[in-house]
Amino acid sequence: MKVLVIGGGGREHVLAHKLNQSELVDQVFAIPGNAAMENVAEVHSEIAETAHDEIVEFAKAHDVEWTVVGPEQPLTEGLGDKLRQAGVKVFGPGEKAAQIEGSKSFAKRIMEKYGIPTAEYVEVDSKSEALKYVEDCKIPVVLKKDGLAAGKGVIIAMTREEAKEAVETLYPEENGKVVFEEFLEGEEYSVMTFVNGDYAVPFDTIAQDHKRAFDGDKGPNTGGMGAYCPVPHISEDVLERTNAEIAQPIAKAMQEEGYPFFGVLYIGAILTDEGPKVIEFNARFGDPEAQVLLTRLESDLMQHILDLEERKPIEYKWKDEAVVGVMLASKGYPGSYEKGVKVSGFDLDGQTFVSGLKKEDDDYVTSGGRVILVIGEGKTVSEAKSNAYKKADGIDSEGLFYRRDISDKAIKHEA
Ligand code: AMP
Ligand code: GLY
User: Fold this and answer.
1) To test the ligand 2 pocket, which listed residue (287, 327, 355) has its Cβ within 8 A of the most ligand atoms?
2) What value does the mean pLDDT take over residues 146-170?
3) Where are the domains of the chain?
4) Are 76 and 148 within 8 A, CB to CB?
5) Which residues pair with residue 91 across a beta bridge?
6) How far apart are the CA of 213 and the centre of ligand 1, in A?
């Protein structure tokens, strides 16, 4: 069969790579893809991710049976619905179900209604209401802007002064929704769950992302600076609770509310003293979680999608090895950064996933904030880490930086 991947980042790079390995798949297309994906997909960068009608036309003209949508934006804008209406199968939710990611307030309300554990919250609709709230709310407090923000719409205010500043930042004008949340403490972990209506099958291996820009979880929030799996210090028991208390009930809740979800639901969870709680839901694979999880996945991704469609048992098979992925990002990211800087010293070896590079003549140059993720495997997390950093250190560029402590939380527990 022919499969189309939508998106042009590292997550889509690994999706195309995995789908290309499937015996069920004859041809992978990518829109817009990126220059580094050419050995695993036919790349159509002339079509934009936002050009929904063109994408539908392309899919029909090329007999695409399944489309796998990587990023959140096309999902929240209804690309899934458009493709389905045209008779193309889509791994990814429609516009309404994608609100679980697109609207923090939608997600909070549904969790509240169905008793799914998450941080206490208060929603405000205007700047004046927000300023009033921060006068005497509990500190620290977390502020989340409604709507998509690429991991940058969340501010953790450790003091009341910071909370007031955060309100100023999130409200360039008087109107708009902001969710205030109780600050939760604990280990964060990401659980990818295949969902078809009320049928939900979480990956039974999880990943841990590193959201802050700098070592020691310092600096601003980013889309993710590296990830690893498995996460040995999050126990089976916690995963079972996450499934029973979060994955199963949210799938049923979405179905009952009339927003059945089809695709992968990302559960961003935190292990508090009271047990697992939801930090966020995403309507798609995590990036960079997908790169490490799908590298570790030994079984056939396409087969799992077909099994999900038919609500058959899904048996994920994982390599024994641990996998660590280190993101190299443009200096300045997640703030402003220079583009067009040359990058060399890497091989497209099936374990190097590109999110922000383009070809200029024969060279690769930077074209985005997060640029390239290198993967190391090993018998232990520390061996995988050391292999990942050998690759990261071998990359030659004036324009990139990366964290040195990806996976250290697990290594601490290995020792
Ligand atoms: P989000 O976009 O909602 O995932 O938030 C980005 C990051 O902010 C999360 O990965 C957490 O590290 C942090 N965060 C979000 N909500 C909370 C919360 N209620 N308590 C503590 N940290 C949070
Ligand atoms: N790595 C976090 C995300 O994809 O949202």
Assistant:
1) 287
2) 85
3) 2-94, 120-182, 187-309, 322-411
4) yes
5) 68
6) 14
Counting from 1 in the atom list of ligand 2, the atom nearest the Cα of 282 is 5
279 lines ligand 1 (CB under 6 A): yes
CATH number of 187-309: 3.30.470.20
Would you say the CB of residue 289 lies under 6 angstroms from ligand 1?
no
pTM for this structure?
A: 0.95
Is 334 touching ligand 1 by the criterion CB < 6 Å? no
CA of 267 to the centre of ligand 2 (A): 10
Q: In whole angstroms, give the CA distance from residue 141 to residue 123.
A: 13
CA–CA separation, 288 and 210 (whole Å) = 9
Give the position, in ligand 1's atom list, of the atom nearest the Cα of 212. 12
Level-2 CATH architecture, domain 120-182: 2-Layer Sandwich (3.30)
Q: Alpha-carbon distance 401 to 332, whole Å?
A: 9
Q: How far is the CA of 63 from the centre of ligand 2 (A)?
A: 31
Instruction: Give 49: exposed, middle or buried? Use CB within 10 Å, 0-12, 13-18, 19+.
Output: buried
Cβ(119) to ligand 1 under 6 A? yes
Q: pLDDT (tens digit, 9 = 90+) per residue, 285-295?
A: 999 999 999 99
Which residues are bridge partners to 366 per DSSP?
357
Domains 120-182 and 322-411 share a fold: no
Q: Is 224 in the pocket of ligand 2 (CB under 6 A)?
A: yes
In the chain, % of residues over pLDDT 70: 98
What fold, for 322-411? Answer: Glycinamide Ribonucleotide Synthetase; Chain A, domain 4 (3.90.600)
Cα distance between residue 289 and residue 292, in whole Å? 6
Whether ligand 2 lies within 6 angstroms of the CB of 280 is answered as: no
Return phi, psi of residue 309, to 5°: -55, -40
Residue 151 has pLDDT above 70, yes or no: no
Is the pLDDT score of 395 beyond 80?
yes
From 21-30, 117-126, 172-181, the region with the lowest mean pLDDT: 172-181
DSSP codes joined into one string, 354-375 = ESSEEEETTEEEE-SSEEEEEE
User: Using CA positions, which residue lies closest to atom 2 of ligand 1?
Assistant: 151
Instruction: State whether the beta carbon of 12 lies less than 6 angstroms from ligand 1.
Output: no
Per-residue pLDDT tens over the stretch 231-286: 999 999 999 999 999 999 999 999 999 999 999 999 999 999 999 999 999 999 99
Is domain 2-94 in CATH 3.40.1000.10, yes or no? Answer: no
- pLDDT digit string (tens) for 34-50? 999 999 999 999 999 99
